[in-house]
Amino acid sequence: MNTLLKLALGSLLQNGLEKRKEMKMGSNEVGGVIRALVSALGGYLVGQGLVDSETAMTIGGGITTIAVAFWSIYSKRKA
User: Fold this and answer.
1) Pairwise CA distance, residues 16 & 20, whole Å
2) Helices 53-78 & 27-47 angle (0-180, nearest 10)
3) 60: how many CB neighbours lie within 10 A of its CB?
4) CA distances from 27 to 22, 55, 67, 70, 77 (A)
């Protein structure tokens, strides 16, 4: 890789990291990530035959609700 390309990539990476520090995840984003992860885990467990779909939905809903509640408390205490 030539020097000019290395400098350009380094500058781009540095700018991206600086912008990332300014961005914070809100409750909606955290909730979305948690829901996606719990859905994927539930789908995997149902696919493996370890639980039925109703059980996965019930447990997944409970986990999501508790996780979002904890995130809400954490984000308000930090502010």
Assistant:
1) 6
2) 160
3) 21
4) 16, 26, 11, 10, 13
pTM for the model stands at 0.58
User: Which tokens sit at 13?
Assistant: 């990476």
Count of CB atoms within 10 A of residue 42's CB? 20
Where helices occur in 23-78 by DSSP H, the ranges are: 27-47, 53-78
Tracing tokens 């996606």 back to the chain, one arrives at 36
Residues 31-79: tens digit of each pLDDT: 788 888 888 999 999 999 999 999 999 999 898 889 888 888 887 886 5
Residues 67-79: b if buried by 16+ CB within 10 A, e if exposed: bbeebeeeeeeee
CB proximity list for 14: less than 8 A, separation 6 or greater: none
SS3 43: helix
